[in-house]
Design brief:
alpha+beta; about 140 residues; 4-stranded mixed beta sheet; Glutaredoxin
Length: about 140
Amino acid sequence: MRAILICSSLMLVLAVAMQAAPATSGAKPRPEVVALEPQQLDAALASGTWLIVEFGGEHCIPCMHMQPVLQDLQATLGKKARVHNFWIQQHPEVARQHRIIVMPTQVVFNPKGEEVFRHMGYFPPDEFQATLKKLGIL
């Protein structure tokens, strides 16, 4: 029993140390992908810039797997386009308005606010970037 307690304590100390330790790889932290509310989505569509929105759910496993992909895209795109989440479970009326039937669904809107591309499900990073290159965003 004592060995289990010591082992558990050691694992806890290591976990805390790993969280507190600075990253040594030199990688930049990923930017946050902000989730929009309906009014913010409308404003973003009218902003005159490229917009990539992932319509999904906060607890959807494929949506969670997409978050690093979206963060990396936001970092790569900089000011060329905005990348956002929209949680459809909280706003089903907006999901119906945008014809969302699968989580996640990534939609690319041009600067006029028009949908120019849609993908349903997990979107591998290389395929996502290739699509954005074809659209002239990357």
